[in-house]
Design a protein that fits this description.
This protein is mainly alpha-helical. It has 5 helices and 2 strands, in the order H-E-H-H-E-H-H. 38% of the residues lie in helices and 4% in strands.
């Protein structure tokens, strides 16, 4: 039986599963949720309010980079990820082989 919860609730439930020190892409979250796009995931992340329990910083773009966010900002996201132990290369990319999360 398909999950009947509203789309954003389903998105946030999956993002909450991403462990500390791991990242995933907007597209991977879209695949796990089903019936939505990476762009929809971006809209859901952008709609979060400060202080949320959803670890939005762990969702990055398919190139392994943080995406600018209105209200949060890419620099803050990178700092939060680095505090979790996620490393960036000289071009500002995260190695998905090392730090990627694919879901359950």
């Amino acid at each position: 039986m398909p999950d009947q919860r509203p789309l954003y609730e389903r998105i946030y439930a999956i993002v909450r599963q991403i462990p500390r020190g791991k990242v995933t892409s907007y597209g991977q979250i879209a695949r796990l949720v089903g019936d939505c796009s990476a762009q929809m995931i971006g809209f859901a992340m952008a709609g979060l309010k400060p202080g949320t329990d959803v670890p939005w910083q762990r969702v990055i773009n398919a190139q392994g980079k943080v995406s600018p966010r209105i209200g949060f900002g890419g620099l803050l996201q990178r700092e939060m990820l680095e505090e979790e132990g996620v490393e960036f290369d000289a071009e500002g990319r995260v190695d998905f082989e090392r730090f990627g999360w694919l879901g359950n």
